[in-house]
């Protein structure tokens, strides 16, 4: 597979932050007497931008607080959780080293705001690993729209067909495929039918790297 760049999603691919996102949402809504579950978060907000997440909960539970204030609450709690307990996903550092050694440009394309990216990169010491960082915060539309992936390709100065994407959510997978990019779906739930459009599916990054290594032989 002759690619020139690899673009990583962040939450659930680089850092095990999905539980932290869920905690931040559950804790924030609990402040208003609203109980939601991890399953609710997975079904309704996983992979989405914070403005869409806040709007989803405000509308679903008729909250009197503004979506903007709920955004701030969730982001503050999330960044605190990342700073205190954030952990890299299995195989992240090996994958970054492998793809860099293969001569691929490495970029990030995330739904998370820049403040979350900073918390993650500070926690995991990743600033020197990526040549391009793109956040859907800067786009008109977040994932599943392809905008953030198209922006990453432009900043990398490569064609979309020369990009390989690593994603973990249906929302992110949809965005990457709409950008016409080859996409690996990396998740413990990779065999779910909802991920059938992925070009390849793996339970973790180690398996994805092994597969890519065999293709390169």
Ordered list of secondary-structure elements with their pairings:
Blueprint: E1 5-8, H1 18-30, H2 38-44, H3 50-60, H4 67-85, H5 92-101, E2 105-110, H6 114-124, E3 132-135, H7 147-156, E4 163-167, H8 170-178, E5 182-186, E6 200-202, H9 205-216
Parallel strand pairs: 1-2, 1-4, 2-3, 4-5, 5-6
Helix pairs in contact: 1-4, 3-4, 4-6
Question: What is the gist of this entry?
Answer:
The protein is an alpha/beta fold and 217 residues long. The chain has helices spanning 18-30, 38-44, 50-60, 67-85, 92-101, 114-124, 147-156, 170-178, 205-216, and strands at 5-8, 105-110, 132-135, 163-167, 182-186, 200-202.
Helical content class: 40-55%
Please tell me the total number of domains. Answer: 2
Q: What is the average of the pLDDT values?
A: 95
Shape, principal axes of CA atoms: globular
**Structure summary, number of beta strands:** 6
């Amino acid at each position: 597979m002759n690619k020139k760049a690899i673009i990583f999603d962040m939450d659930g691919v680089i850092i095990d932050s999905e539980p932290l996102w869920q905690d931040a949402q559950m804790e924030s809504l609990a402040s208003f007497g609203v109980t939601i579950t991890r399953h609710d978060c997975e079904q309704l907000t996983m992979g989405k931008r914070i403005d869409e997440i806040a709007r989803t909960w405000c509308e679903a539970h008729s909250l009197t607080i503004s979506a903007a204030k709920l955004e701030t609450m969730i982001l503050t709690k999330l960044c605190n959780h990342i700073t205190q307990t954030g952990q890299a996903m299995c195989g992240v550092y090996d994958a970054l080293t492998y793809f860099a050694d293969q001569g691929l440009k490495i970029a990030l394309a995330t739904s998370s705001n820049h403040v979350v990216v900073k918390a993650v990169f500070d926690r995991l010491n990743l600033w020197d690993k990526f040549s391009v960082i793109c956040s859907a915060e800067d786009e008109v539309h977040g994932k599943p729209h392809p905008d953030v992936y198209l922006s990453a390709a432009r900043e990398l100065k490569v064609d979309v067909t020369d990009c390989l994407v690593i994603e973990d959510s249906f929302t992110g997978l949809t965005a990457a495929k709409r950008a016409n990019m080859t996409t690996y779906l990396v998740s413990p739930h990779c065999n779910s039918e909802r991920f059938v459009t992925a070009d390849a599916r793996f339970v973790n990054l180690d398996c994805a790297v092994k597969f890519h290594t065999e293709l390169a032989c």
